[in-house]
Amino acid sequence: MGTEALLAAIAAEVRACTRCPLAARRTLAVPGEGNSQTDVLLVGEGPGAREDATGRPFVGPAGQLLDELIRSIGWERRDVVITNVVKCRPPGNRDPEPAEIAACGSYLDRQEAALDPSVVVTLGRHSLQRYLPGARIGAVHGTLRRGRGRWVFPMYHPAAALHQASLRDTLFRDVRGLPAALLQAREAIEAERAASVHDDTDELLPGMSAEPDVATAADGEQQLTLF
Ligand code: URA
Ligand code: SF4
């Protein structure tokens, strides 16, 4: 299955999911959306009121600020994929509970595996804890880190800046570092890949090819599709 079909299949499961108590009080589950060809995955906390009503991530006030942040570096929302650690709204926008995050985690695991992003941008505490357990946002925001086998770029949650004006400047400053962090992550991944190809070459049996695998470039997926 191609990436887009995988993401669509996961989204369909999420929309019907009753794996945790958040299912009972949701209007719509919010699987996530974006470009299945991207290598940038943004992970927030969980749907709010407007997300619950529409089934789309980050479409309320925090989403408007997220859009501004993305546009401030010349990107568009449709250039990335946006999802959350829990796909259903916690009542009254309370924090998701550990059991809910755990129950929902396998969807995010599978979205991640399908996309194989070069960079995961964490938005807020709960997302940060998944990739860098124990890390403090004040210490790591706006820097490229390694966690859970991924390159991770932690940011404050946009909603936090709606309550605390000084964080707005921090968010815009941090996001300005994202394009360079993405290039750095891609280079590191390329270097790792080259090193492992090199290792493989040492073990090649007679007659085996060490050509790069180009099959993925032509698997028929469209650019810029929403799932
Ligand atoms: N806040 C989040 O963390 N996620 C959303 O989708 C919307 C607001
Ligand atoms: Fe299922 Fe996740 Fe929604 Fe819980 S939050 S019901 S695990 S989709």
Q: Describe it for me?
A:
The structure is a single chain. The protein has helices at 3-15, 22-25, 49-54, 61-72, 98-115, 125-131, 137-140, 158-163, 166-175, 178-202; strands spanning 33-34, 40-44, 81-84, 119-123, 145-147, 150-155. By secondary structure, the chain is of the alpha/beta class. A hairpin with a 2-residue loop joins strand 5 (145-147) and strand 6. Helix 1 (3-15) runs antiparallel to helix 5. The radius of gyration is 18 Å and the shape is globular. Uracil (URA) is lined by residues 44-48, 51, 57-58, 60, 62-63, 84, 159.
Which properties best describe this structure?
6-stranded mixed sheet, binds iron/sulfur cluster, single chain, 227 residues, 10 helices, binds uracil, Uracil-DNA Glycosylase, subunit E, alpha/beta, disordered C terminus, 46% helix
